């Protein structure tokens, strides 16, 4: 019987049974003496007294256990998230205490998760505000200059162009934030189809060729032209484009950005390498953090969302992204996708 898994109940039961056995034996012995009824009555009274004492002791122990449990629950309710009920013994009551402790641990974990979410939201709002201050301040300056009656037409055109760039920067920031938020919330359905990854890379290369030529840089593509990957073409393109854009932002005239597609038995590997400025060792472990801006970077136009977005997209495809860099010599991003 499961009730006897509790050692205190088992002890109480055996003590009562022992009292009854002793009373029965004594009754059998007293039958042989005179005044049998008196002796049996005295034995019965003694047995009842012992049973009452045993039961009283048991209920005192149980009451102490329950009071301790109530005190721990009150302590937890007062804010001590580490308060737990002792439940080392077996039995249904201790099983109940164990479930209560599990519930408390779950509530504590949920509270910590919500606190982290609040802190993340607070930091994100602060970062967004900081990111928007620069382009908004620039727009105010440009508009103020253009409102000056003495401003020449050529200057107005220049400031209009600069204003357009700042507006594009704000739009990029907002769009990337929306994409990351939707990926985090799981509201984006990744529509996977078998795609030729080499063709995707070639389309990306052609998209950036004009900018590369303007900046006197080269983009190359090599590898397996028949490599097929189950992916969402739009999102994978977005991820790789962000990595290529990051490479263009951190390379100088004459530098090379190379893309290579490798087709292994179990994975598809995409390697994006550049001969640019590289990543400082201090920054290497932080580049996928949102809004992270290196104090060593000369890029003042970035939003700090391109690489985190790329990572989120790649991981949504059950892939991984790794980075290896030597400061001043270049960077290598390695993307691995399971077939």
Structural summary, described in words:
With 339 residues, this protein is of the alpha+beta class. The protein has seven helices and seven strands, in the order H-H-H-H-E-H-E-E-H-E-E-H-E-E. The protein has helices at residues 7-30, 36-77, 92-146, 153-185, 197-214, 233-249, 306-316; strands spanning 193-196, 218-223, 228-231, 256-263, 267-274, 319-326, 330-338. The strands form two sheets. Strands 2-4-5-7-6 form a five-stranded mixed sheet, with helices on one face. Strands 1-3 form a two-stranded antiparallel sheet. Strand 4 and strand 5 (267-274) form a beta hairpin. Helix 1 packs antiparallel against helix 2 (36-77). The protein is elongated and about 130 Å long. The mean pLDDT is 81.
Outline the fold blueprint:
Blueprint: H1 7-30, H2 36-77, H3 92-146, H4 153-185, E1 193-196, H5 197-214, E2 218-223, E3 228-231, H6 233-249, E4 256-263, E5 267-274, H7 306-316, E6 319-326, E7 330-338
Parallel strand pairs: 2-4
Antiparallel strand pairs: 1-3, 4-5, 5-7, 6-7
